[in-house]
Amino acid sequence: MGFSEPKYVGHCAFRGIALYPEGQPFKARVNYIYGRGLRAGFVPISQAKVYWFICFNNPSPGPRTDDPSILKKQALELMRNWPSDLLDVLHNTPDDVVIKTPLVDRWLWPGFSPAASTDNVVVVGDAWHPMTPNLGQGACCALEDSVVLAGKLSAALKDGGESVEAALRAYGEERWARIFMVTARANLVGSLLQWDNPVVCEFRNNIMIPWFVRLAPFLEHTNFECDLLEPVAST
Ligand SMILES: Cc1cc2nc3c(=O)[nH]c(=O)nc-3n(C[C@H](O)[C@H](O)[C@H](O)COP(=O)(O)OP(=O)(O)OC[C@H]3O[C@@H](n4cnc5c(N)ncnc54)[C@H](O)[C@@H]3O)c2cc1C
């Protein structure tokens, strides 16, 4: 459909899920730890499971490695001397659930990027707007796309007035502003979080992050309301 390839942003992520069959010991909150060009986090997702991630700078995405035991070793190597809670989470992760993902995005520049639909073909989610995970919004936006698209299609089919093609165009136009803003913001937040200069990191950790997090607008993107789906009448 004429889209450019997603662009590598200079950092990769390791992710995994730790298993605690006897129950995990953590409070129900997201734990973030910031280093230099390196950050990590973990969050309990059930009584027995803890999700974790590590983001690290790398000039290139590097070779594809599918052997999860190698990935886990690399993740542990990056986290040497980091807090023991985090290391505990990594050690409790089975090798075969560790994955590595080079982080990419695609900015949909107004007036330059192709439309979300061509004829009767339309894209949603990462196929249209891959974004970095720094705001945790990629899957959320894919779901929002689906709701808006379903609403436009259902209106077009119900009224018979608007063509499907026009409904797809209206979907792309409505979603574009939201997507562009979140993609750009996630990219900029990623650059800030991946800084590796020690002085800049001190400033970031002790002044910028506490100040930003206190400001409600920093999280305003999470309060987005898209259309509501109408229930389908049963036949
Ligand atoms: C490190 C990391 C952390 C993230 N954290 C968050 C988060 O906290 N919150 C959040 O909202 N998002 C997060 N995301 C983003 C989220 O994972 C994606 O935005 C989301 O998965 C996109 O969903 P999708 O359905 O559009 O695409 P995908 O999840 O990529 O699904 C596409 C599917 O299509 C399949 N497929 C591809 N080609 C074909 C084909 N030719 N035929 C058949 N099937 C095909 C693929 O195998 C895949 O299963 C994160 C991403 C990363 C990398």
TrEMBL record:
One GO MF term attached to the UniProt entry: monooxygenase activity
Ranges that cross the membrane: none
Source domain of life: Eukaryota
InterPro entries attached to this UniProt entry: FAD-bd, FAD/NAD-bd_sf, MOase
Annotated FAD-binding domain residues: 118-183
A Pfam family that the UniProt record links to this protein: FAD_binding_3
Protein keywords: Monooxygenase, Oxidoreductase
Homology family: Belongs to the 3-hydroxybenzoate 6-hydroxylase family.
Official protein name in the record: Zeaxanthin epoxidase, chloroplastic
Organism of derivation: Dendrobium catenatum
